[in-house]
Request: fold
Amino acid sequence: MANPPAIFFVPGAWHQPWVFDGVRSTLSNRGFETDTSALATVGSMNASVGVLDDAAVIRSALLGLIEAGKEVVVVAHSYGGVVASNSVQDLSISQRTADGKAGGITLLLYLCAFVVPVETSLLMALNNVFPDWWNVTEDRQFITPIDPSNVFYADVKPPLAAKAVAALEPMPFQMAIDKSTYAPFNEAFEVGYIFTEKDQALDVGAQRGMFSQFPAGSFSASLDSSHSPFLSMPVTLADIIQDAINHVRGKNVH
Reply:
C-alpha cells in the first residue's frame, strides 16, 4: 500500500496493550507503523479515574503521531470505543486540512466497541443495568469481570486465554458513569465498525444498533469470533483493518 497510515489501537476495559501484539506484528510485516497506549483506568486504584482521564492519555499519544504529519487509523476495542470518541475532537484529516495542518485521523474503526452519543455514559448505554458478568464492589468503586475465559476469550487457544485472564486488571467504576463529551460519528470523521458474531460480552445485535448511528456508506465487516479477535484471529483482523483503509481511500478518490 502506498503511503500507509499509522494504525493506533485503543484497548478495552481491564486489558493492557500487549493483547494487540499479534495483529500489530502482522500489520508491521505488511509495512504499517502501529502504536498503542495503556489506559489510565486499567489497574488504577484511584476510584475517581474515568473516561476523560483515559481520553487525555490516548489523545496525547495520538497527537504525537499526528503532529509529526502522519495519517492515523484508530482501532478501538470495546470500552475503548468510548475512550477513542472522546480523544479525537478536531483531529480528523478534514478538520486538520481545513486548518492548514498536516496529518490527522483518516478513520475511526470501532471493534465490537461501544458507540455512545454525547451526554451518555457506558452504563446509560446498557440501560443502567449491570451486565451479569460484571463484579462490582459493594461500594461501587471498582469492577472486575466474572468468567472472562468464556466472556472474552471463548475462541482463543487455552494457553493464550489463560495468559490474558491472568493479566486482567480492575477498573474504577467511574469509567461506567462518566458521560461522553464528543460523538465523532456526527462530525467530520470517517467511521467504521467490525462486528464479532459470537460475542458474549457485547451482543452482536447491540453492536449493530450502535453502528446504525453512523452515516450511510460507513465501512462495516463481520468476524466469526468472540470478543477478542486480536487474540483468536489476528491475521483475519489485520485483513479487515486493511479492507477498511481501502474502503475509505476508495471513497476519497471520487
Observations:
- The mean pLDDT is 96.
- The first strand starts at residue 6 and ends at 10.
- The beta strands are 6-10, 34-36, 71-77, 104-111, 134-136, 142-145, 171-172, 191-196, 219-223.
